[in-house]
Fold each of these.
Amino acid sequence: MSDPRIPIVILGATGMVGQRAIQLLAEHPWFRVGALAASSRSAGRPYREACRWNLDGEPYAGVGDLPVLPCEASALVRGAGARALALSALPSDVARTVEVALAEAGWVVVSNASAFRADPRVPLVIPEVNADHLRLIDRQPWPGALVTNPNCTSTPLTLALAPIHREVGLEAVCAASYQAVSGAGYPGESAWDLLANVRPHPGDEEQKMAAEPKRMLGTLGQNGIVQASFSMSARCVRVPVVDGHLVAAQVRTRSTITPERAASLIRSFDPGLDLPSAPRPTLLVDDRRDRPQPRLDASAGRGMAVTVGRIEPCEVMGLKLFCLAHNTLRGAAGAALLNAELLRSEGYLERLKG
């Protein structure tokens, strides 16, 4: 009996995010793995030979015998069809070439890469926050579509701030992230840099975390996204934790809000999503003084919920809090899969039949 689920092509299948996506698709009710693609080093080999599996559970999640296709648009169209759905976990330099070429060929690409997150034509989406931004797709110049999910630190921060912003407005946010090593992929950063150490992030994480929440908390206008008008400052560090990015935020709001009211808004946040990967509830508030913690809270809601804690008064900014999410699930593969589910529910996958 044939599988009625929609096939997804995983781009960057051998990396940490690609592996997470494959693992999530193993028992997904709507989607399945259709094809795998990776670098030229892996192309042409069975997945089990091309990939060092670094996750718990069944190695290769049942697709170890699938051949790996090259991450080149023409080869992917030949190998997986003229129109297909892709989840991209590619490095940004590769994504910048491949993703638009696939959209031009008629594919729908849901990307975890940062290459097009700032492109005004491309929606940057957390379904619980700004699902309406998907309508940017209707203005894209390609027969296919390209959608992105945000950086793994922007995600928990934006979700935690969304109910506060909607109620009283944000004026300024200062945030610092404490990021797990899995966010760097495998083999990742040197153990020499991380063991018994906290390392200021050498990449561009701070620029992403400073820019992306303002876009996602903005509004869709006639000329594109109108960013939310609060100011944002970000610092990012890598810490010796396996999974789970913790963010500390100090928040100044446009109208005064008590920590109790902020906690109530976060607890009652209900985006009304009925999607397989959407956690219920989306946001959890933990009142204990020592929470959230990556080891204890990153897997909340099957790794898709955000845990918020230490919602307290701040003498400088007015309000402060911690928020935490699993970086390769809520912050990466699970976020992209949730966007694919949103695309299906909103009818955007119908263009694959054209």
Amino acid sequence: MKIGTPKGMRDFSPQQMAKRNYIFNTIEKHFKLFGFEQIETPTMENAQTLKGKYGEEGDRLIFNVLNSGDYLSKVEGGWSSKDSSSLTNDISDKALRYDLTVPFARYVVQHQNEIAFPFRRYQIQPVWRADRPQKGRYREFYQCDADIIGSNSLLNEVDLILLFDRVLSELGMKDFTIKFNHRKLLNGLAEMIGRPEKLIDITVAIDKLDKIGKEKVEEELGARGLSEEEIAKLQPLFELKGDNLLVINSLKDILKGTESGVKGIEEVEELLGLLERTELKKAKLELDLSLARGLNYYTGCIFEVQSNEMEMGSICGGGRYDDLTGIFGLPNMSGVGISFGADRIYDVMEHLGLFPQDIEVQTQLLLANFGGEEAAHALELLQKLREAGLATELYPDAAKLGKQFKYADQKRIPFVLLVGKDEMESGKYQLKNLASGEQNSLSIEEVIAKLK
């Protein structure tokens, strides 16, 4: 048997888990601070809940779960007459969740009579995608989502921008950009060239700008049916950059004859006006017309966050969707949501050395085991120390002291308490600091006071 994990799946060591939990706990703390309530949805959803919601490419990346029992015998017309796609539908009616957003939409519809709207929810759970594994891209990874559904107000977008800023600033990032765009601005550009029906073709192409460059994007736009003249008119997508107000003023001239474009400019100006009443700690805010993520269901503002301290791609994202719940029979329920990419944030923090030095310390104190009565006495002390809130272990075997010290060193336990016969009689125990080598004779109350 070949031992290993499936491609794109990972084990996490105690040290890695300490760092991951530091990220999760920081994110969750701010979710609660901003008034979001936690829900969870199942690992598996009915396949029909997920399929058809992410586009053809997304559907191919869904992990299907085989039906239990003799599933092939139940295939209508016999399995040998089916192609792989239709056969999958017959033998699998469940799938692992691809993201947290579509299950959230299903949850809102299913529980609409129990929810107070606008509903502020957060989820921190793993998702699965049958993608090609590469750096920063895994088949199993966590999403940390916050959504506000049941309100059209741009105050919600402001709140989520502030949430990006507060979380990433507390995690120690000093230079990152929150890029944003608006679906209506892109609609306006498509209207401006007289090809509103080509919006998705245009956005699919320009979304690849960072990966393949301007010339290749223009080639793809041509392949998607746009003329050279129409592509030339779309140059603002590539060239309008810099100060947000200057970009907006240029767009006012370019999009002045388009209904969608004018409305989009109004909403972007309102958003920036509201943000002027707030204060961003570290984030830069950039209107980026080439940002076109997820427009299959985003209908308003679109967000993407990038670290400027290392090359990683987006570490967070999100946007407004006006009718996501409509696919489950509850129309006109507008919402806006964001997601923190915990795995990419981890990679950035590891590269920049942003994790606190003491984050890996789990156990604070190890009680050395001398066997017999000393071990029994140490067991009594163990309970007192834990009741005082100190993370404490008793070494289970009466091994040589050198072995016990080595164990503490490997686990990064900073202190060892020696509990021998002399210590039992005097009530003073030898507390050894493994980093400095310093050793003090202290009562158990003094040990507690010193370590707390």
